[in-house]
């Protein structure tokens, strides 16, 4: 006769109590047993429990010791009593901890050849290596992937070879956290040297967006200000106004365009000095959570802004120079502005000779190209009026020449007005 291997339900529970760490399958088996024995049966069925609470006076009953409980005070329900199983359960009740398998799956190590000489090399790495969180890379490919749009936008900007290389140095330095020593950050404040119309605002925005995406800056905040946003009309108010702007930019970028205007006459202008001193203090106090970018002509900034406070120069450790555009680059900027619209410029309309002859009139580079395009469109509207619809938005050399004439006439008016204003104050 075979011996039965069946265990009673209580014996089964006792068996599991002796096991310190239950694995997933053991836990599921135990829960299944409990479910079969108690959930799918009627608790008060005398055929199951062997006790008829209504008629059996010998059934063990223990009053609930919670004297102030709801059922103790207001109910004579049989559920306000305990049977033998309730007593056993209180003595043997245990907690089952489901220990999840927290062991990390080993990530595959991937080594990427990271020889970088320019932005093209960096973009090639991103395009040729799709980031996979299951892999462990020798470089921060995740961060590079996050800022790919900004890197491409920067790389597509015409010219600026030296500036792009300088920004590449800054990016690689920050991405590897080499700017942090003893949990304290180096200064991130940056100078953009260059004339108007060279894309300084766009560059500052790219810097701010990149560093907010990879965590160097905590917030995607970018605020462009000029002198009027920082300097008040009364002594004492300028510091308050400047601090307010700084507080709004914490965690992001404060961009001060034409920063030399803050200190043109700092020796005589107490308001300017108050602004510069307040700003200088904030550059140190918030070196971890603020990036201030200033822009303007190198000579003007060096002779005014940095002279107004001796501590200012050491706080701007990053200096980026934007070179003046040559004739070909000016022409490419003009073409790019048109190609970004639905206007059509034939290749034979614009040539290097046309721009070389007029280069000296385009001192503001990108801004002047925007103006030239605007005047060109006005001239075009007159030329095609009443003509065939197929001519619409197709730029001709006549449009370009007529637009340039408008550009020059308005430029002379601006120069004349500037001289008149100067004569008033001299």
From TrEMBL:
It comes from viral metagenome. GO terms for molecular function: ATP binding; ATP hydrolysis activity. Pfam families: AAA. InterPro entries: AAA+_ATPase, ATPase_AAA_core, CbxX/CfxQ, CbxX/CfxQ_RuBisCO_ESX, P-loop_NTPase. Belongs to the CbxX/CfxQ family. Keywords: ATP-binding, Nucleotide-binding. Residues 186-305 form the AAA+ ATPase domain. This is AAA+ ATPase domain-containing protein. PANTHER family: AAA-TYPE ATPASE FAMILY PROTEIN / ANKYRIN REPEAT FAMILY PROTEIN, AAA-TYPE ATPASE FAMILY PROTEIN _ ANKYRIN REPEAT FAMILY PROTEIN.
């Amino acid at each position: 006769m075979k011996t039965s291997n069946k265990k009673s339900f209580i014996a089964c529970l006792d068996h599991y109590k002796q096991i310190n760490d239950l694995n997933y399958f053991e836990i599921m088996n135990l829960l299944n047993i409990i479910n079969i024995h108690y959930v799918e049966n009627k608790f008060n069925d005398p055929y199951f429990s062997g006790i008829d609470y209504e008629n059996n006076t010998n059934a063990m009953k223990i009053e609930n010791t919670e004297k102030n409980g709801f059922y103790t005070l207001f109910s004579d329900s049989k559920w306000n009593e305990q049977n033998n199983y309730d007593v056993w359960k209180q003595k043997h009740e245990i907690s089952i901890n489901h220990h999840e398998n927290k062991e990390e799956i080993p990530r595959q190590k991937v080594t990427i050849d990271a020889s970088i000489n320019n932005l093209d090399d960096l973009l090639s790495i991103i395009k040729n290596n799709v980031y996979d969180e299951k892999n462990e890379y020798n470089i921060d490919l995740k961060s590079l992937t996050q800022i790919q749009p900004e890197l491409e936008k920067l790389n597509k900007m015409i010219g600026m070879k030296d500036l792009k290389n300088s920004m590449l140095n800054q990016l690689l330095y920050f991405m590897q956290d080499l700017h942090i020593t003893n949990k304290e950050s180096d200064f991130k404040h940056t100078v953009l040297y260059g004339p108007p119309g060279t894309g300084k605002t766009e560059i500052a925005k790219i810097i701010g967006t990149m560093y907010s995406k990879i965590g160097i800056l905590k917030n995607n905040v970018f605020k462009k200000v000029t002198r009027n946003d920082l300097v008040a009309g009364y002594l004492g108010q300028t510091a308050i106004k400047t601090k307010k702007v700084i507080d709004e930019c914490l965690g992001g970028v404060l961009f001060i365009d034409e920063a030399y205007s803050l200190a043109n006459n700092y020796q005589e202008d107490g308001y300017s000095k108050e602004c510069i001193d307040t700003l200088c203090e904030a550059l140190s106090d918030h070196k971890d959570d603020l990036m201030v970018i200033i822009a303007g002509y190198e000579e003007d900034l060096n002779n005014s802004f940095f002279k107004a406070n001796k501590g200012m120069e050491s706080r701007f450790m990053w200096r980026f120079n934007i070179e003046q555009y040559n004739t070909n680059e000016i022409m490419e900027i003009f073409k790019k502005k048109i190609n970004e619209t639905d206007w059509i410029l034939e290749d034979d309309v614009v040539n290097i000779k046309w721009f070389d002859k007029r280069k000296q009139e385009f001192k503001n580079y990108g801004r002047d190209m925007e103006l030239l395009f605007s005047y060109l469109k006005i001239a075009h509207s007159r030329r095609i009026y009443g003509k065939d619809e197929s001519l619409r938005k197709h730029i001709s050399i006549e449009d370009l020449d007529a637009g340039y004439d408008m550009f020059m006439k308005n430029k002379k008016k601006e120069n004349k007005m500037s001289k008149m204003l100067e004569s008033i104050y001299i």
